[in-house]
Amino acid sequence: MAVTVETLEKLERKMTLTLPVNVIQSEVDSRLKRLARTVKMDGFRPGKVPMNVVAQRYGYSVHYEVMNDKVGEAFSAAANEAKLRVAGQPRISEKEGAPEGELQFDAVFEVYPEVKIGDLTGAEVEKLSAEVSEEAIDKTIDILRKQRRTFAQRPADAAAQDGDRATIDFEGKIDGETFAGGKAEDFQFLIGEGQMLKEFEDAVRGMKSGESKTFPLSFPADYHGKDVAGKQADFMVTVKKIEAANLPEVNEALAKSLGIADETVAGLRADIRKNLEREVKFRLLARNKAAVMDALVANAELDLPQASIQAEVERMVEGARADLKQRGIKDADKAPIPDDLFRPQAEKRVRLGLVVAELVRGNELQAKPDQLKAHIEELAASYEKPEDVVRWYLGDNRRMAEVEAVVIENNVTDFVLSKAKVTAKTVSFDELMAQNQDR
After folding, report:
1. Residues 288, 290, 291, 293: what is their CA dihedral angle, to the nearest 10 degrees?
2. What is the mean pLDDT of residues 242-267?
3. What's the half-sphere exposure (Cβ side, CA atoms, 13 Å) at 106?
4. For 98-124, how does the pLDDT look when each residue is reduced to its tens digit (9 = 90+)?
5. How far, in Å, CA of 65 to CA of 30, rounded?
6. At what angle do helices 397-419 and 369-380 cross, to 10 degrees?
7. Which structural domains are found in the chain, ordered by start?
8. How many C-alpha atoms does 113 have within 13 Å on its Cβ side?
9. Which of 1, 79, 223, 270 is disulfide-compatible with 229, CB 3.0–4.6 A?
């Protein structure tokens, strides 16, 4: 059949669909007959309900279903005939004044854009590298030791210092009134580890068991508690107990407690290095991939289909509601979440997805079976039973789709880096960790 497609604006198109009335009616009759074989109604045996009764009860809904199905089939056939890549669902409305014996519908829809990717040899990308230093291993060991520290009560005349655990009672007031969350008894925190605001820690540092103190505290303007953010409070604190921390020695006993196979300090350090190197690799990959994607998008020209953006916004809104529900928020599924909150991010995701898809199609960057296998094995390597993790991935299509997406992104990253002007930059382990926390 000949299909006429009208261009409305940018990616928006319109075409007219024509359906013979007799085709619609024939399908309606066929479905009603099938329905009559099984429908149950009071006063009739199953399968013995007269057709006119079935048609009266179910005719409208069946006709509606048939119209939807037939219009959908006609639209798909017409879009295929015109070789259109349709983005989102069409908006379909019935036309008036159709010829006798026919029904006509206008279908308004968007198509995916033509993506023009510029010469990637002119793109500039900063590629980071980092090494795991002995200092990074030492810091990790210190963290492991702190996780296993024990505490012993200090003498009554000992002053609280960094590293100690203080047990306190406190009450904070703003304009003479105690505020929510501003009062506690037998509250414990570690001094000098940032668990409390700096002014609070400074006040407790140097106090002894049994001592009390009143001091002012200014909450930062960006404090997570919005009711007190930017306000000044007066706190009364009483120290009830001070405990000194005892950290385990770095020796064979520590290595054994951490499950190191040869139970040696050298084995412990080697195991930590291996884990940190794996972490560095994934973080570098994520950081460099983000730089590549930014350069790729900046080097491409395309219009964005609004239908795809809206679909992405709706997915993000649903994700936000699911997150609220998981946190125990009442009526999370009815929470008023404005679309505009997610639209900029949705536009960015759609743009990147279209550009990446075009690059993959044009350069055969699809994920290969051996790449999928290698990536899964790498993910599983850090677990106690890697073979179980591999089976876990292979046994679920959704998880495999996620792996495939990551591998394709890696292929795109490698391809762009092979073409672009790459500037190498070495960063420290700590800098890399901080960068990834900020992103």
Report:
1. 120
2. 93
3. 10
4. 888 988 899 999 999 999 999 999 999
5. 13
6. 110
7. 5-110 (3.30.70.1050), 150-246 (3.10.50.40), 255-438 (1.10.3120)
8. 22
9. 223
